[in-house]
Amino acid sequence: MIVRKMANLSLLVIVVIITALAFDFTNGFHDTANAMATSIATGALRPKLAVLISGVLNLAGAFLSTKVAQTISSGIVNDKLATPAIIFAGLVGAILWNLATWLLGLPSSSSHALFGGLIGAVWVGAGMNGVHFDQVISKILLPAVASPIVAGIAAMIATYLAYRISRRAREGPVTSGFRHGQTISASLVSLAHGTNDAQKTMGVITLTLISTGALAAGSAPPFWVIVAAGLAIGLGTYAGGWRIIRTMGNRLTDIAPPQGFAAEASSTAVILSSANLGFALSTTHVVAGSVLGTGLGRRLAEVRWSVAGQMALAWLLTLPAAATVGALAAAVAVRGTLGVVVIGLIALAVAVAIYAISRREPVTATNVNDLPPIGAQREALGTAA
Amino acid sequence: MHIDWASVGQVAVVSIGVAAGVVVIFTLGVVALSRRETDIERGDHGALALTGAALCFAACAAVVLYGIYLIVPQLHH
Fold first, then answer.
1. pTM surpassing 0.90?
2. How far apart are CA A362 and CA A378, in angstroms?
3. What whole-number distance in Å separates Cα of residue A135 and Cα of residue A101?
4. b/e for A280-310, b at 16 or more Cβ within 10 A?
5. What is the per-residue burial (b if ≥16 Cβ within 10 Å, else e) of A38-71?
6. From CA B63, how far away is CA B69, in angstroms rounded?
7. Which residues does residue A28 pair with via DSSP β-bridges, in sequence order?
């Protein structure tokens, strides 16, 4: 049945669907760190088991909620102006930025990359009026600044209290107790992530199908779209963005089990309370804020501000960088099918090149917790920046 | 452009309060487990400490269930 439906679609729409699923996959592995980095760093979960749990919960989350899947960008661009070629160009911008930041091991927001790509593509493809800049400030910039600060303060206070209360307790029960707590808090983050992020891809595919008349206006995502989007993000999560997991779990600060639990509890509290009040925020920003906060909350724990600074720079650049790539791609893609094919081939070539570079110094489930000595780290950071 | 600062403040207060509350209760549970080990070594049965730990973890479990309730839309629509 899927095949029969696909047969009626134009080549362009099929390319958009495949590109959207590719973005969803990068979204998955980019964000594995958000739920699992601290659990992997403290040894609460073995790396392979952690990404398996997170992948399954992301897949489950995709089926639980499709309520925001009716919009591409939550009002940041005018969805009516987004033709398949423009959506394609926006997705290319988002994917390439996600791959570049993954190569550098920098946790950056996949949502910002998607919004950035779409903003650039709509701006060039349909004009500046298609971008709602007031929404950019209230829905993107404000949460990006406020959420890591709130999560950081929460984690700092929680960490301080956890150490204060347990300072005379035995080490055995403390370590194992907090490790068990972490597996639960990390699972909650994964589930919440699945209910949020898979829907973005569903929205992109569904609105593309509506724009070409394959679906009636206002349709909910078809079942095969939900399955495909859930599988793409679940498999991406399972693939594990080990480079980013290493940064979040080991390079920002050193995390002991009580800190991991305090950080994850804080992240979960921020994500759930803001979702409940209608704020769309990036799990990446929340978790990074919590990790830094927990580093500060424990006396003598070291926060590596150079790594935090690079991460903050990546956050600032995410939207404009993805927008620039999206705009360039849109300038070519809107010229017709040939333009789309050219951009598709260029994007594929860049993706393969980034993957090839990553193989020179691979980070995997087996070496994610082995950090090179500080000197070697500095050197790596120097070339990365 | 309208920014709802009251909601931003509400998210901040609720998140910080819930995070600190859950972590404190969980830590008390862990401390009670540690106390139970000490009690048992001293020849005590440690039942009081175990009960305290169970109460703390039960409270945390209730918060987790509420979290799942918030995540899964089918439960609250």
1. no
2. 18
3. 25
4. bbbbbbbbbbbbbbbbbbbeebebbeebbeb
5. bbbbbebbebeebbbbbbbbbbbbbebbbeebbb
6. 10
7. none
pLDDT at A209 over 60: yes
The yes-or-no verdict on residue A154 having pLDDT over 80 is yes
Chain-chain contact of B71 with A195 (C-beta, under 8 angstroms): yes
Is residue B54 less than 8 Å (CB to CB) from chain A? no
String of DSSP letters for A36-95: HHHHHHHTSS-HHHHHHHHHHHHHHHHHH--TTTT-SSTTSB-GGG--HHHHHHHHHHHH
Shortest distance between the Cα of B44 and any Cα of chain A, in A, equals 17
Which of A347, A25, A83 lies closest to A200 in space, CA to CA? A25
pLDDT of residue A217: 78
Counting one residue from chain A and one from chain B, the pairs whose CB atoms sit within 8 A come to: 133
H or E, element range at A197 = helix A171-211
* Residue type for position A348: L
Specify the 3-state DSSP secondary structure of A14.
helix
Give the end-to-end CA distance of chain A in Å, rounded to a whole number.
Answer: 49
